[in-house]
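Suppose a colleague, Dr. K., hands you the sequence of a protein chain of 200 amino acids and asks what its three-dimensional shape might be. Before reaching for any lab equipment, you can write down a predicted structure in token form. Begin with the sequence itself:
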Amino acid sequence: MSETAEKWRPTKHGANIGHTSAWMAHRKVALDVHRMLNEDDPDRAVIDAPYTVMALRHVIRGVKMACSHLKSEAAKDLLDEALSDFDNVIPGGKKARDIIEHFDEYSMGIGDLQQRRVRREDRQPDDELSEQFNHRLEWERDGDERRPVYTAGPFKIDLLAAEEAAFRLVCDTYEALRMDEGNPVPRGWTYEVQRGSLRG
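The predicted structure, expressed as tokens, is then:
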């Protein structure tokens, strides 16, 4: 390394690290959905599905990290809007992830959403609440198409819609990074180019 070259410092590249983390989490979601739809392995689909929902949460976490390290208000506004769009497509995604991640509490009926008005130390196991908040992979019909849907308590995550929304969010994050660097492209350009290359 030359004396003039500055050492790469991760603390100076939080936006890029967040985007890369979101991209990797989306690839996990996309791979899981692809396997569910194209491999005749129902056991694997049941095993993959809850971790697919958890990976969606990592997409959001990476995007929020990227947003917090952007310098341009316009770029931050783009990501705030993109995150809001994602939440509109996948309502309840964070709560579904919480139910899955805190299975030790929800399976006993003592999760935060189950007994929200009771202090943690005072909660008692409840079979009925446990049953109301169980989680499972289901398949729903949309015309001739079967769609994998993950149900966690009262929340339903259409995994096809979630993968699409996560991909859009990752593309929007890339565009926010470009905007922040003074090299903007029209919103949606990255999505169209990437989806076109994947289809082609």
